[in-house]
Fold this sequence. Notes:
The chain has 13 helices and eleven strands.
Amino acid sequence: MSNIDKRIDMHSHFYGSGLVEALMSRRERPYLRRADDGRLMMVAMNGEFEFTDHYHDYRVGLEQMRATGLTHRLLTFPGALGVELLPAAEIAETISIFNTGLAQLNQDTKGALVGLAGVPLADMELACAEVIRVRRDLGLPGIILPSNYFNSLAEAEELRPLLQAANEYGCHIMLHPGLKLGQTLPPRPRDNVQFRLSAIELQSSASQVALTVILSDMLEAFPDISFQVVNLGGTLPFVFERIESIARHRTPDDPFPTDRLRRLWYDCASLGPRALEAAVQLYGADRLMLGSDYPIFKDDPYAHALAPARLSSAEKQQIAWKTAQDLWGRLAALREQKNRRSGRSQSP
């Protein structure tokens, strides 16, 4: 396969590798139940949906990839489900099994499937140990974290021990919408719930997350972590000029550090060509990647968002595969370097 044929999906979710059995045994959200008509239903934190094979059978996902022309896909632990917030005594072993299964899938599919692991956030010591195992021993690129930990500087500070552990072997971290430990769901809007929650509020929250990272010391304190903000960084491509204006008028000696936004990575999951064009203008194509949000969304992100975008051929190739491939190469080099320093052999 030539590079020009590569299409790497950097935002999808996976509920297999032991999670099905664990969720079938539960009776409180999140859990799986069998409906009267025989369908398997996921009772999630914010609703209920049919749990089809797309969610947990990697072979179905591979077929969908072939049908849409995707060559590689980043699978993640299902962050928005809240599983990682359950008591560690209940869920830590299940998460560990899931992570090991992701590493095996990578080998079984000859690299077509790559995985971001989960960590048991209810026990910080276990979470730190697991992120080191994920990078040092399993060779997975990183982890997924609930973005509500990054809604403010103070909340992000709660994860500093975990970020320190993640930095040890280099780590990619997807900041994905999800509750933090101890939080309950906020009141639902009175109308048009899907649009208000899943579009307007979600995009706003992604912007808050990016702001927290760039306005903190995280980029300097953890230089070997790469942070991925989902959905093109939310509303930032459309409001950053207003943010700059606010700083220019109210704190003229302290301008907004727009350039720091280029030190994060972003995917285009569930968005289209016009949004992608705006994001290229702000971040640059070398910080942008394809994203599908499969299996929640099943659009081909290349055909739906990238192909119709008014971008150069070089920019489209950068977003289609090169940004992701360069990122994976950076992570592999960091891991090899750290393993060599510690005297460990490189595996897998």
